């Protein structure tokens, strides 16, 4: 098995300008509160209870899909997605679910002449919805269309190809230290973590150290509470390193 390269820290990437910025989807661009609420409804579980168990699963470092197994052992997500669609209750999101800072951030980064992309673990249906939203981006890719899922190396290797620039000149913005930050950094991609959503608030500091056995958060070039400040941070970084 090929061993991943050691993660590059902000210090080792200090001399690299950022030419492309790629974003994860859930809890980076899209507030998933409403969508996970509909899954609780589908299972017949109070939303508060579903959210509490979901958080416990995240804190244990388990796959979030284990949440469904707690309430319905043997639950198959792909099958249930199909069932929901058949009865007119498909997974969905829209403009109302975008965080308010998303469009301004994407637009400002593009105005700086950067390649802006969206790449995340999403279904083909979600990719269609993202296209319909007509975000100001240059590249859109999902695990379904790329046939590769985070945190696999294949996913981020495809992202590098789509970006069209060397890995060290790409910034990947995600909310998950496990699925987003660590695998991207291991390929030499710069990273920014956004502290929102379950993973952004739970999987950090002592919990992250216990689950990941590494201080992955400190690998990030930027640590953010939202996207509003990202364009100015990138501009300043590029002025200092260009």
> What's the SSE pattern?
EHHHHHEHEHHEHEHHEH
CATH class of the largest domain: Alpha Beta
Give the C-alpha Rg.
18 Å
How much helix, percentage-wise, in residues?
Answer: 40-55%
Give the N-to-C terminal Cα separation: 37 Å
Number of domains: 2
Largest sheet: 6 strands, parallel
Summed over residues and divided by their number, the pLDDT gives a mean of 93
Structural class designation:
alpha/beta
Strand fraction equals 5-15%
CATH homology-level superfamily of the largest domain:
HAD superfamily/HAD-like
CATH architecture of the largest domain: 3-Layer(aba) Sandwich
Q: How large is the count of helical segments?
A: 12
Textual characterization of the structure:
The protein has 242 residues and is of the alpha/beta class. It folds into 2 domains: 20-31 and 94-241, Rossmann fold; 33-86, no CATH class. It contains 12 helices and 6 strands. The protein has helices at residues 33-43, 47-59, 66-71, 77-86, 102-111, 124-132, 143-146, 153-163, 177-186, 197-202, 205-212, 230-241, and strands at 20-23, 115-120, 139-142, 170-174, 190-194, 222-224. A 6-stranded parallel sheet has the order 3-2-1-4-5-6, sandwiched between helices. Helix 9 (177-186) links the parallel strand 4 (170-174) and strand 5. The protein is globular. The termini are far apart. Residues 1-7 have low confidence and may be disordered.
